[in-house]
Specification:
This protein is of the alpha+beta class. Helix content is 29%, strand content 56%. Strand 1 and strand 2 form a beta hairpin. The termini are far apart. Pfam families: DUF4440.
């Protein structure tokens, strides 16, 4: 039962993160992540948040939808590993973007709040 409660708790945390990302506003996203958060993906490798924020602020990258289904949560003290499947749509350099990915978010508990430290994306094989 504890596992189901954790999945529900982190589903809400991920939903809030999704809302922040589709706002396309750096200040909203910063409420969900640590100051050293990074994004890891198959095309860009390790992308520091400054690089991610830069393409958002320039409008090169936008998100219009984002969903995640949480499939697994493991908590180790103040660290949580959250794995699920996510889909999103938006634009990259003016072109439509659509992704279906396996997502692992690493969270750290800071001041009673779970903040994302790292997001790792792996495309779902079609």
């Amino acid at each position: 039962m504890i596992e189901e409660q954790l999945k529900k708790q982190f589903q809400q945390i991920e939903n809030n993160f999704n809302i922040a990302v589709i706002s396309n506003k750096v200040d909203e996203i910063k409420k969900c992540i640590t100051s050293d958060w990074v994004l890891v993906d198959s095309q860009g490798g390790i992308i520091p948040q400054e690089g991610f924020f830069k393409v958002l602020e320039q409008g090169s990258l936008t998100h219009s939808t984002m969903t995640k289904e949480i499939l697994r949560v493991k908590v180790y003290g103040d660290i949580a590993l959250v794995t699920g499947r996510g889909q999103n749509t938006g634009t990259w350099q003016g072109q439509p973007l659509e992704a279906d990915e396996w997502i692992t978010d690493v969270y750290k508990k800071e001041n009673d709040q779970w903040l994302c430290v790292l997001t790792h994306l792996t495309p779902v094989k079609k």
